[in-house]
Design goal:
This protein is mainly α and 334 residues long. The chain has 15 helices and no strands. It has one domain. Helix 2 runs antiparallel to helix 12. The C terminus is likely disordered.
């Protein structure tokens, strides 16, 4: 970490932004390749979603432990129950998000997972009795219209390619779990002031334990081993998928720590837009003019909301993993 401090401030932002772009660009490519490729002569699909997330959590946990060994973070006072409950919602969001890829294509998944501001604002109005400025409603309206344009079927597109209702349900459920994760992590921040590596390590450690039990109890572990024996090259994809996830999270944290949540929001919003375009081009997904207009509206609304819709943060908040970065860490598992 000391070497990072010696880098000029302006150059840091460029390095961090490139790190986020590259890590999650190839992360997304590998995620879609694993989940939606046809394997063997029979054209079977990869079905071991829990095992995929389990490997990723183990790698992320080991990565975070390495950071703690290099740069000790002090005593963590967060209650164990918060880490366990957070791990449950965190891994549920990841599993359902990855499972959705068996029913919708990657651009649809990214679009769906980019709509977090909608339920956050609705819950804030209904249950938190919050009041938002008019521009916030305008930005959310742009996102809603964009989503409607993107998913609206006019009979010319392939329903099989675009997705089905169960896939959309999984994405909505994943969004709900993201919201619960953010709420739990807010409590953790208020209670124990955990550092990035501490939170990353504990959440991934408990996620690994819970998923480890689940894959053994359901028998998925044997399906996973059998699949890798028949298609061993998939293990290499899963390995790099997990490594990119770990480094992507690190770049997200460093961006928040040194520049705050606003630059991070703008970087991740831009990155998602180009990831969607790259997926359409690389995998040859059919996309209509209507869907391109919808995509542009969604990410314009997200970008404006990130730029104009955030309240100023107190300086000390950047020493922690802020709420915006927490959402992006979960969101990175798209």
């Amino acid at each position: 970490m000391s070497a990072i401090k010696a880098i000029p401030h302006e150059l840091k932002l460029i390095i961090y932004a490139l790190g986020i772009f590259l890590c999650y660009f190839f992360f997304g490519i590998l995620q879609e390749k694993i989940a939606r490729s046809k394997y063997g002569e029979s054209g079977e699909y990869y079905k071991c979603t829990m095992s995929l997330v389990f490997v990723m959590c183990v790698v992320n946990g080991v990565f975070a432990k390495g950071i703690l060994l290099i740069s000790p973070a002090g005593r963590d006072t967060v209650q164990l129950k918060h880490y366990i409950s957070c791990a449950i919602t965190y891994l549920t969001a990841m599993v359902t998000s990855n499972l959705a890829l068996q029913h919708v294509n990657y651009p649809t998944q990214v679009i769906g997972k980019s709509c977090k501001p909608i339920p956050v604002m609705i819950l804030g109005v209904l249950y938190g009795r919050k009041k938002y400025p008019i521009q916030k409603y305008l930005f959310i309206f742009m996102i809603v219209v964009g989503v409607a344009l993107f998913i609206w079927k006019d009979g010319k597109t392939s329903k099989k390619e675009d997705g089905n209702l169960f896939g959309y349900f999984l994405l909505m459920f994943s969004l709900g779990m993201d919201g619960l994760t953010g709420g739990i992590q807010d409590r953790m921040r208020a209670e124990g002031n955990p550092k990035f590596a501490q939170m990353m390590y504990n959440i991934n450690m408990w996620s690994s334990i819970i998923l480890g039990v689940a894959v053994v109890a359901t028998g998925e572990v044997w399906l996973f081993i059998d699949f890798l024996q028949r298609y061993p090259y998939v293990l290499n994809h899963i390995w790099w998928f997990s490594i990119l996830s770990a480094f992507g999270q690190l770049f997200i944290f460093l961006t928040v720590q040194d520049f705050g949540p606003l630059p991070l929001s703008l970087i991740t919003t831009t990155r998602k837009f180009f990831t969607v375009l790259a997926s359409i081009i690389y995998f040859g997904h059919p996309a209509t003019t209507q869907q391109f207009i919808g995509t542009a509206l969604i990410f314009t609304g997200l970008g404006l909301d990130s730029w104009k819709g955030k309240e100023p943060k107190k300086p000390q908040a950047t020493t922690l993993l802020s709420k915006e970065s927490l959402f992006n860490l979960v969101d990175s598992k798209e």
